[in-house]
Each structure stands twice: as C-alpha cells, then as structure tokens.
Amino acid sequence: MNLRLLRCIRAKNVGPFLKTVLGSSQRDAVLTLLLARTVVCVLLSHFSYATDPITFLDKQRVWVLQAGESTYAFGVNERSELQHLYWGKSIGAEDFNSAHSLPEWASFDLSTTTTPQEYPGWGAGLYTEPALKATFANGNREVVLHYVDYQLKDDSLEITLKDEGSPLVVRLHYRVYAHTGIIERSARIENRTSEAVTLESAQSATWTLPPDRDYRLHYLTGRWAGEWQLQSEKLQIGKRVIESSRGSTGVEANPWFAIDRIGETDESDGPVWFGELGWSGSWRFTIERTSSDQCRVVGGLNPFDFSYRLAPGESLETPPFFAGFTDAGLGEASRMLHRFQLEHVLPGGPHPRLRPVLYNSWEATEFNVNEAGQIALAEKASRLGVERFVVDDGWFGQRNNDHSGLGDWYVNPQKFPHGLKPLIDRVHSLGMDFGLWVEPEMVNPDSDLYRKHPDWVMNFPGRPRIEGRNQLVLNLARDDVKEGVFNWLDRLVTDNDIALLKWDYNRNWSEPGWPEVPLADQKKIWVRYVENLYEIIDRLRSKHPRLEIEGCSGGGARVDLGMLRRVDQFWPSDNTDALDRLTIQYGFTEAYAPHVMVAWVTDVPNGINGRVTPLAFRFLVAMTGSLGIGGNLNKWTDDEIAVASKMISFYKQIRATVQDGKLYRLASPTESGFSAMQYISQDNQQAVVFAFLHSQQFGRSMPLLHLEGLAEDATYSVTTMNDMLEEQAEKLSGAYLMHHGIRLRLRGDYDASAIRFDRVP
Ligand code: GLA
Known about the structure:
The protein is of the alpha+beta class. 25% of the residues lie in helices and 30% in strands. Strand 27 (548-551), helix 12 and strand 28 form a beta-alpha-beta unit. Helix 10 (479-495) packs parallel to helix 11 (525-543) and helix 14 (615-622) packs parallel to helix 15 (638-660). The radius of gyration is 29 Å and the shape is globular. Alpha-D-galactopyranose is lined by residues 362, 392-393, 437, 504, 506, 552, 554-555, 571, 574.
C-alpha cells in the first residue's frame, strides 16, 4: 500500500507544474481527474492497509505482517542478514525503516550475536541459540545465511536464504491467519551442494520479543494422571529449555509457551506473546534472555541425538511453529489459539462437527469385554441420551490383560464369536454410532505379530529391549512397518462400521535404533517415524472420510497441533477424579480448545484416588469440555440415571457454546477452593458459567462472580442448574452481570452449578 500511496501523494504535486504548461481550463480538468485518482488511491491504500496481511516495503527491504491486532516485521540488513524488527501491538507498515545491525558489545559479543536474526545459522561468531547447525563434507561446520529473494502471495511469504560459502539453501515460510491473529512459520533446508550435508539442529523458527527484563514464562508440565499443570516463572538471564526427547510430544512438558510482562499482564489484560508447535515427536523450545535483555524463543525438532544427513538434492521440512500476540491477557491468548484450532487446524474445520456425547466402557469393564456385556451397557447408555458408544481395550487377539495381544488386530473369537457386527448393529439400532480402541504403534512381545516380526520394533542390535507396560514400540520409520500398520487399520475400518477410533500410545521410546539403514541415516528415526505416523492417519482419513479419531497417549501425553490436524478430540488424562480434573482441564485450555477436551463422568470412589464426589459435581466438571460417560451403568441407581439424563439433556442445550464458544477462565482452581469457567457462544446469544466450590469453611461467604465479555446493554434470562434443580430465575443486564456480579448459592464440599444466560431479543 505504501508504494501506491506514495505514488498518489507525488501525483498531488503536479498542479503547479501543469499550470505552467497548460491553459487554466485544461489544467482544471486534468487536476480534477488527478484529484479523483488521488482520492481513489488513498481509499484503496486504506482498504489494502486493513486487509493486506503482508506488505513488502521495497526501498527499505522490510516485510510487515499484520495478524489480527498485532504486527510482526523484519528486514534485510546491510550484511544481508534477515533481521527481526518488531513483534507486538499493531503499527502501520509505513512506520518501519530499513534494518541495521546492532553494534557489538566489546570484542566478546560480536554484532552477529547482538543483532536479532530471523533464522540464524551457527557461524560467524553467533553465541545465542542457532536455528540451524550443520556439518559439511569438507569439514566446514558453520552456516552463515544471507538473503537471496522472496515470493509473496496473499497471506503467504517465502524468503530464500543461502549460506554465504555454499549452496545450502533455506526457505523460510510465513503464513498470516489475519482473522485469528496467528502467524505460522517453518523452514525448508535444501542441500544444493554436490556432497552430503548433515544437519545437527533444524529449528522451525526463532521468535524475537522486544527487549525487556520483566518477562514471565508460562508453560505446561505434568506426569501421568497429573497432566496440564500450569507453571509460571520469571525469565532469568540464560537459557530455559522445555522439551521432550522421548520420541513423542510427552506429558512432562507440552509444546506451548506464553510469555507476558510481570506486573502488566493477568488473565484479562496486558501483553502476551505465545506459541505452539505442530509436531508429535521430540521437540525443544529454548527460551533465551541474553545479558542485554534480548528475549527469544527458538523451537523445533529436538537437537538431542539428532543428525539428519541430506544427500545432494535432498531437503528437510521443519514442523510448523504457530505464534501470536495480544495485549488483552492470557485469556485472550487462549481464545485466539482455540479459534485458530477450530478454523484452521482441526480436520473438520472451519466448522468442526460438535462432539457427540460418548460412552466409553473402559472403567466399567477394563479388559473384560464381550458381546453381551457391551450390548447391556449400550442399552443403558442410549437411555441416558448418549450418542456414541466406544469399546475400549480388550476386544482383539489374546488381549485379556496388558501382557499380551497388542499387535494381533483380529476380533477375539471367544469374546465376540460373531465378530463385532452384532454389537455394532445393536449400537446403531439404539441410535448411537460406534467407536473402537486401537494402539497401532505398539506390540506386546507375547503376540503373534512379534513372534513373526521381532525386527519390526525399534532396537539396538544385541542389547535388551526395555518394555513399558509390557510393550515395545514398532519402528514406524520403516516403510514396511508403516504399510503393515496402515493395511490392518484400513481393513478394520473397511470391514466394520466404525465412526471413531480411539488411537492410543502408551509408552515412550527406548533403544531408538534402526539397524536396517546405513549408520549415517539411523538417527533419522526421530523424524521419519512421525512423518510415517502422519502418513498413516492421513491416508486412513482420506480413504474413510467419515472416520473420526480420538488422540490418546495414556491420557494426554501426545497432544500437539501435529496430532490436532489429524484427530477430532483428545483424551487429556487417565485421571477422571472430578476435583483433580478441574486443574487438569484448566491447564489444558491454556493451549487447546474445550471442543477437543474429552471428559468422562465416572464412578466413585474414583479408581485413581478413591475420592468421592457427588454425581452432579462430576457431571458439571465433565460438561466444561466434550462430555462423555465412563461409569459402570449396570450399577447406577434409578436416581442416578435420572440425574444423568437431565444433565445430558442440559448439556445438549449448551454444548455449542461450550465446545465452540469463547472461554473466559473466571477463577482458577489452583488459587482458592473455588473455581469458575465462562463460555460465550460465537454469535454472542448465549453464555454459560460453571462454578465449583471445592470445599468451604463453615460460614465463609461466596464471592460475587463477575462475568466477562457480555454486551453491557443486552438483557439475559438466567437459568440455573444445580443439584438437578432447573429454575428460570431472573432477567439481568450484561452490565449488571459484569459489574455487580452474581451471587452463587453454593455450600459445603463439592458443590457446583451451571448457569445459562440467554440473550433476550
Ligand atoms: C490407556 C488409556 C486409557 C485406556 C487404556 C486401555 O491407559 O489412556 O483410557 O484406553 O489405555 O488399556
């Protein structure tokens, strides 16, 4: 737009010139035309300012990305490096000047280190975290990347860089999702030399924040059955690493970060820079604050045990790294990610199908599944209003416990003498669709598959194969293993009417060896495994377009945007205790949408921790995401069935708001004995609040709960659901609900309510 605008402004100066060369009436006509042209140009330039996601300033050699309410800019400096210029609140493109490298700090920190580069190779005296590190056949171990050219098309930009001493080429990709405010980055590294180049670190992006000394880092950690714990800490000088080197995403840290400013940011206000990686293998984020308070996040493939040899002509594409900025607090950062996931990541986007209410029989029967037992549960589930019936582990091979059978994907003839068809038919006749558990990437040594193909698991020859949950990991990096896995999955879905596969993955890697390929390529297993996993799922989905998948990894150990592109929902944790779940689910929503967060109502005392909570409390906790039932319905009393039916029918009235709406985390479960979540539907017509009292000191009053994000002058009718009591109470204005707040009638331990606010026309 700037060039167009500049040309227009220059056109305004032609008046005096025309006066000297033309008569006055001719001059007036020409001037009128020019004026009209100027007005059109100015309007056009404003229009294009509002809509152009990427602008290139030719003279300055600067690119300006406009993503929602934020601006991201970088340019080519006098050394031909691609230099970061800005990431933060919106600024007009015309304000940016050319990039100039920063001075060195004495002889110790050279200018290559003090100048923030968009994608620094390790070399030329770089002491900060590199985005790329390589070794060449001639022994050279540095890469110094210089700008070559660019291609810009609508919302996508490709910048080509080249090593100054060799034809090693890097193509940086940027894509702007202007509506959701998210920027996507990745890099493609191409070996155009005539010999092999070995990559030792290949990062997706370096995200540079404005220099500051008061940054706070938020990240998610966890353990099995205690996933999604939010951690927050001041960013000190040095490098802070969060990562997984386990072969998959991992539960100890999730590839998500948010950085805000201490004292300025909270849930609903202040600057936040945030991002998440689209990769389901080992990954690493290095969050670095230098001694001059520069701050950056470098993330991508984990360099641990990494070595990727590129033969001449070969290339490596890094995973996508998505990021955004908001000045409206951590809550808005989550809402931006949620919207982005729904519109651009989920397989069903931009309008993914609402998640059906499901029943899963795992906690009820464990491995003890058979046709009659599952049909009995299905009949009870359908009476509650359940829409999808899922059979979990135990239906195949000799899978009577977790010691045997994994890998033998035929229907167990003792448990299902007529195959799965009679059960599936019955489930259908009850008005539900059918789901089935699988764990395609694993094998029990006690299985026909392992006896036939012991070489199919990853291993270091001659060394023990360490088991986790009595199972080994198949080496999906091998194409024959990939084909074997695809073929049985394809057959299973072709032969049976399956609406959902629950795709489990119950251990991390040990002995990541791939002895069948040349030594120099064996470490490619870290990348090729994940690429082949993606290929299996992608092929399966394209061949069976109606198939949905639930991502599971002993709970939530493989939740990331790489999987989210391929699954419709996630199982966040094997911990189904309602109180523990409040913290787990709260953390989950920092990074991922409630739409994909499956939550079951299970029995008490809870199988994990023995806690007893009321059924209504369990339901309301599970309703804050995608509702499921996991209890043993054979044991539910008539009263419990009545509560469940009513709760499920209430959920169906609000599920679009919960699953696809805007989430406001009103009160954190980690800060007091009370927590609350609020959701507003995309069309702003409905809001829902869930409030949970964990425990109460006798006589201690409940705080007023202030809603957020409503229209001040709108009127809402308020319907409360607690302890099965549905009441049409009152009509209140948005202003009242937000400024005065609502008084909650909760008391004692594990009390909860859901309140629905419908906008009155
Ligand atoms: C994992 C899953 C559970 C269940 C079991 C079955 O632990 O997280 O939900 O499917 O496997 O073995």
